[in-house]
Design a protein that fits this description.
Number of helices: 4
Radius of gyration: 15 Å
Shape: globular
Number of strands: 6
CATH topology of one domain: TIM Barrel
CATH class of one domain: Alpha Beta
Largest sheet: 6 strands, mixed
Distance between the termini: 25 Å
Amino acid sequence: MARRYTAQFASGGRYGSAVVPAHQKRHPAISLWPARGEELILELHIHSQFSYDSLLTPEKILKVAKYNGLNGTAITDHETIKGGLLAQRVNRDSGFAVIVGSEVRTDVGDIIGLFLHQEIKSRNYLEVIDEIRDQGGW
């Protein structure tokens, strides 16, 4: 049986957890990974000042996340990866993961892409999924 880790996440004030098979779900962009039996606590959906609905700077997001005991965060601004890229540049803590993401409005609803390196250009949901995958994202 494969080793499994518990990953907790906080999003929108709600907390949840998921069992993550270590050999399948680890993304190479996360160098931080918990030892067996430890937890990885992440915020996987937060917006920065680069979204119309947030005033938080990426620096402030990192400070608050660390203060609250998180191991990392995914900044998923609307239609852009600017906030996540800036957060990666200013993060000086090797024990804290910053995941670059984006919340993309498509013709059938919003899709969140994680581990992105380039802006998502399409707004067709199938093409958005392809763009995310082409970057090695989730």
